[in-house]
Amino acid sequence: MDNTKKENQEVKKLSSLIVAVIVLALIIAGAGYYIYHQKRQMSDLVEAFNLEKESLEDEYNELSLQYEGYKFSVGNDSLVALLSTEQAKVQRLLEELRTVKATNAKEIARLKKELNTLRKIMRNYVAQIDSLNRENEQLKVEKKEAVRKYERATSQAATLRKEKEKLTERVTLASRLDATDISVTPVNSRGKRAKRIKKMERFVVSFKISKNITAPVGEKYVYVRIMKPDDDILVKSRADVFEFEGKEINYSMKKMIEYEGEELSVVMYWDIEEFLSPGTYRVDIFADGNLIGRKNFDLED
């Protein structure tokens, strides 16, 4: 009887122990599941924080690139300097973000706020840039119009200048004297026409200056150049020069005349003191800085 009672007590103790073990196992299993679940949630939360941080870094990078792009598209130096300052601030905050732990919610929130502020500043700069671009486009249009007007005015001025030059040229041509009926007569010592060079003592050069009411009147010099077949000029002195087409050239004879706009006969004389060879000679006549007549004549031996 006592043995049976003792066995029953041991069975009860064993049962209680088994129940206690099972309960403890359940508690441990529950605690393990809870810890695992908490770790899983924490891992998911950390991953979410990391993704948020990466996303924030991407936004900072994108904003920095926007600043860089606008710097190259703006021609205003002052605005470029301001954009550079703001871009440097973005880069500084980006470096701060990279050193901050993803779980530091306070710093992440601050950097998000800074990013929003920077975006507002960017929008303000974008508005200024758009305004400048519109102004630049308007200035380009105005510049093109001004260039067109200038080209038109320049073209008109050039046309007027050409017309004036043509008119001046016509007036100059109209007012230029003209020598006609030019003759060169070689004469001997008795003033008679000489046919052979060895008997020639003088050239008598005669011509008429035509009537021209538009030509300048008054006293003026007439110059005559006698050119030999070898293109040398007959001169008494190499110092006898006059200006023609910007250069000083020799003359053979000169004579002061009084021209009143009417036809005028002129006779000039050249005393032959040099050796003359047979061939074709030429007489050029000048007045008022212009060549007004030319005549060729032949001499025979």
In short:
This protein is α+β, with helices and mostly antiparallel strands and 301 residues long. It has helices at residues 2-73, 77-99, 105-175, and strands at 179-187, 202-209, 218-227, 241-244, 247-250, 253-259, 264-271, 279-287, 290-299. Helix 2 packs antiparallel against helix 3 (105-175).
Rg is: 58 Å
Q: Describe the largest sheet.
A: 4 strands, antiparallel
Mean pLDDT: 82
The 3D shape can be described as rod-shaped
Low-confidence stretches: none
Percent range for β-strand residues:
15-25%
The strand line-up of the biggest sheet is: 6-3-8-9
Distance between the termini: 192 Å
Order of helices and strands: HHHEEEEEEEEE
Total beta strand runs: 9
By secondary-structure content and strand pairing, the structural class works out as alpha+beta
Task: Indicate the percent of residues in helices.
Answer: 55-70%
State the helix count: 3
Give a verbal description of the structure.
The protein is α+β, with helices and mostly antiparallel strands and 301 residues long. The chain has 3 helices and 9 strands, in the order H-H-H-E-E-E-E-E-E-E-E-E. The protein has helices at 2-73, 77-99, 105-175; strands at 179-187, 202-209, 218-227, 241-244, 247-250, 253-259, 264-271, 279-287, 290-299. The strands form 3 sheets. A 4-stranded antiparallel β-sheet has the order 6-3-8-9, with no helix packed on it. A 3-stranded antiparallel β-sheet has the order 1-2-7, with no helix packed on it. Helix 1 (2-73) runs antiparallel to helix 2 (77-99). The longest helix is centred in the first third of the chain and has 72 residues, at 2-73.
